[in-house]
């Protein structure tokens, strides 16, 4: 915001009484537009929307979310994404021993609203929890075998 010609529009977003030494709302004037951060981003979504409605016909506002930035090349500017979620594999794997695979699958599918991938692995009946490479978290499986026994 400080790069714009004036930051008066920022008063709606910040309490200027908390900065009593601020006596001038002149910006640096490096860019001819007015960045509007936090657009549609909580907890400032409402106030950013209010600023947009109040100044959209007076200032060249460029609204951007908390995951965006304004890229300036010469006289051109565009909104770019700045946060990219890296694909990660689970750091932890778990197995839940069961004595009745059909009953266990029905229970977990009803509770979590997903479907298991059923597979036989080394002679053991297994039902794998879903795993998505574009999400974080852990995964595991239900296992029915003669080695692991559920506790009560």
Search tags:
152 residues; alpha/beta; Rossmann fold; Signal recognition particle alu RNA binding heterodimer, srp9/1; two-stranded parallel sheet; elongated
Taken in chain order, the helices and strands follow as EHEEEEHEEE
Which architecture name of the largest domain does CATH use? Answer: 3-Layer(aba) Sandwich
Number of domains: 2
The average pLDDT is 85
**Beta strand count:** 8
Rg calc = 27 Å
Spatial strand sequence of the major β-sheet = 5-8-7-6
The CATH topology label of the largest domain is Rossmann fold
Using the coordinates above, name the CATH class of the largest domain. Answer: Alpha Beta
Short description:
By secondary structure, this protein is of the alpha/beta class. Helices cover 15% and strands 26% of the residues. The chain folds into 2 domains: 8-81, Class I glutamine amidotransferase (GATase) domain (Rossmann fold); 93-144, Signal recognition particle alu RNA binding heterodimer, srp9/1.
Give an overview of the whole structure.
A 4-stranded mixed β-sheet has the order 5-8-7-6, covered by helices on one side. It is elongated, with a radius of gyration of 27 Å. The chain contains 2 helices and 8 strands, in the order E-H-E-E-E-E-H-E-E-E. The chain folds into 2 domains: 8-81, Class I glutamine amidotransferase (GATase) domain (Rossmann fold, 3-Layer(aba) Sandwich); 93-144, Signal recognition particle alu RNA binding heterodimer, srp9/1, CATH 3.30.720. The chain is α/β, with parallel strands linked by helices.
